[in-house]
Amino acid sequence: MTVATGARVSGKVLAAGAVAAGLVVMVVALLAAGGAPKPLPAGLTGAGAPVSWAVPVLRLLADLAAIATGGAVLAAAVLLPATDGKLGAQGLRACQDAAVAAGVWAVASIGGLLTTATVILGIPMSQLAARAGDAGSLLQVRALAAAVVLTALLAIVVSGCRTVAVARLALVLTAAALTGPLLTGHGAIERTAFWSLLATASLVVHVCAATTWIGGLGSLLRYGRDYLQAIETFSRLALVCAISIGITGLLTAEIHLGGHQDGWGLITQWVTTGYGALVFAKTVAFALLVWIGWWHRRATLPALAANQPAAFWRLAAGELLLMCATVGLAVALSRTP
Fold this sequence. Notes:
The protein has helices at 11-33, 49-79, 89-121, 132-136, 139-159, 164-182, 193-223, 228-256, 259-262, 274-305, 310-334; strands at 82-83, 86-87. With 337 residues, the chain is mostly helical. The chain has 2 domains: 1-8 and 190-332; 37-184. A two-stranded antiparallel sheet has the order 1-2. It comes from Kribbella orskensis.
């Protein structure tokens, strides 16, 4: 079933706004929470401020490109109509967009790999080639390198995708490329194997659910405006993602704040530490997104079904910008002690 589209926001304008929202929020959060790069003491050499700032910026670009890739692949594999297992015109368009986004993801990940290695080794970028062996031994660098390979493979697969089956394979590759770098994050440095495994597994579910939710909404705005069935399918999927994000976000934050050692009383750290303050800000943003989802179900979806789509698409565009701002918070959180 198709629906009237109403006034549309330019895809380029919305994409630029999404990147800007994420970047501004990330920079402000890093500065406010103590995760921003610090100037080197006099007489010491290191990666330098530009390279140190490039690490979170490239991480944000990679994350947003990954979300765009996942959303486009999700649209082709699940949301958009197909005939006898073959993608329709919009599905093919989604795959081509996914190939471009995956390319951006790979390039940003390569940049992230180089800058991360430089910062961890504490050397100027000009000396990285001479320390290639040391860089290659770093777990973070190896995880990013694996993600680059998977992302490049993903770009090749979706560029030639013509069927739903191949699009579903691309979904699996997207999840795999997302997972690798998460295995060397905060969760990997917990004190015990059990809590490390729990924190990492929770983070993987959290990121995959967020990618599905944000990318799926973006794909609706780009490809699914004329397909009511796609919107209804995504609405059900978004509810599952929201529940998963809420549970895993709370669990992961409490583990990182030490809740498994000192009890849930550490919830007070949400407003007394930089890391906790960012968790609190993400919680507020998440609550607002849940409210928007509830409002969609209560008001804008019925209006959309009645062929009055304007309110739904305006709210969805604002929702996407808020989601990308939350991605900026998440990147800042990953860089905050």
